[in-house]
Amino acid sequence: MWGRTLQFLPTKSLREGLLPWVIGVMLFLCTLSLTGAVAIGKGLASWSAGLTSNFSVQIVVKDPAERSVQTEAAIRLLNATPGIASTAVLAEADVLALLSPWLGDMPINSDLPIPTLIEVKLDGRSTVNTTALAERLRATAPGAQLDDHQAWMTQILELAGVVQLLLAGVVLMIVLSTVAIVIFGCRAGLATHHESIEIMHLMGAEDKTISKAFDVRYLGHGLKGGLVGVLLAGGVLWLLADLAQEMGQGLISASMPDASNLLWLALLPLSASLLTMLTARITVRKALLEMM
Amino acid sequence: MISFENVGMRYGMGNEILTDVSFSLERSSFHFLVGPSGAGKTTLLKLLYLAHRPSRGLVNFFGKDLATLERSALPRIRRRIGVVFQDFRLFEHLTAFENVALPLRLQGAKKAQVADHVEELLSWVGLDDRMHARPATLSGGEKQRVAIARAIINKPDLLVADEPTGNVDAEMSKRLMHLFVALNREGTTTVVATHDENLVRSVGAPILRLEKGHIELQPGGKPIDPGV
After folding, report:
1. Closest residue on chain A to B89 (Cα)
2. Quick check: ipTM above 0.90?
3. Half-sphere exposure (CA, 13 Å, Cβ side) for A227?
4. What are the two backbone dihedrals, phi and then psi, of residue B74, each rounded to the nearest 5 degrees?
5. Contact B75 A205 (CB under 8 A)
6. What residues of chain B, 30 to 69, have a C-beta less than 8 Å from chain A?
7. Which residues of chain A neighbour B48 with C-beta distances below 8 Å?
8. Which H/E stretch holds residue B148?
9. How far apart are CA A215 and CA A223, in angstroms?
10. What is the mean pLDDT of each run of 10 residues along chain B (228 residues)?
């Protein structure tokens, strides 16, 4: 592809010296933003997978005898429902432990009516219509309340979606800024080398011969900057992953990019160099058309 | 081979630099272009080496009308024109050898062929020991010779030279004119812009005299230098 490139541009040009570093900074920000978006997606996927594989049913009845009757009726109905793998009634001590942050430590034989909590696990093979099930439960056990986490999970998912969109917007802005920087750099390069280009033209160089020299130059700038940016971002991500592991936070660990995500990140320098080269080619060809 | 008919040239909305310029250059012809400063010599040279299109008039290069010529066809025509710029316009980061090799490399000549031709020509202009020097380390005369070598390396059909002997001593000036004349005898149409009346007299070629944008063709005299 580059075998016939006639490189007439000087190897070093002061005006272009900073370009690879600017591209590097852009790639660094781009990599972090993309990784952030991927991490949010991965974290939520693993988190919501855990939440959607189970739900809970509370039997909120004041009278203990009636509560027990309704609990048994609810368990019968739940066990007969396709898609439900198992049901388990939480011991009163466990329920009190769950309530202790709000109510403090209470004796088990307290007069305060404590609802019965049934933990329901889904088999994952068939879906369960929780809305219909909640109605059937209420018909069987009027004190039953089904909580499938949907109410607050939807809000969190919506918020995460907005954050992901924002990050995508940041990536888009970084890409556009990079294109703009390359265009400015290219125009500065054209101005610097205007006389050389003119002489090449007068000697009979075709536009493609001239623009190829810029292609090679800017491909190099893009590759150099891309590698610097991604390596720096890789270092930051490695530190974050290390920190997450030390903290032992499941959600953060699950959000960190894995090998397949890192493979995509490795393609970023190549994408950056191609983007830089194409931007330079279009800018140079357009400028050359204005010459005779 | 090249003809200008009622050619006018102005830059932007400025005054006309060239007015109704008409002349033709036959194959193997040799002309001097003379005239006082500001007469339009540089502009006419720029039209001759296709740096500009005229504002009006007909210009014909090698049988092709410039007005109807596609931009993509210009490189082919430009490769048939050799230009010696007054200010040399060499690539400062390239060596003398690399500068002279450029026109051949643009035409896709093989590496060995390029090396043979360039070394031979640089030796001929007395730069065999300066082939790998960069322009910054060359004297004015040496730069001039590199510029001339670059212009003639591919044996152009038309050679346009702007004050080609302005920076060399009398001996080298004579030698370079010998080269131009020899090239001209081999079929290269030559136009040399100069202020040097001695040079004009030594060759005795016809003169294109520019005065305030108007051109006049004067017949050549008898060469006073028997070697030329």
Report:
1. A199
2. no
3. 5
4. -65, -45
5. yes
6. 49-53
7. none
8. helix B140-152
9. 12
10. 93 89 92 90 93 93 90 93 92 93 91 92 90 92 91 93 82 82 90 87 88 87 61
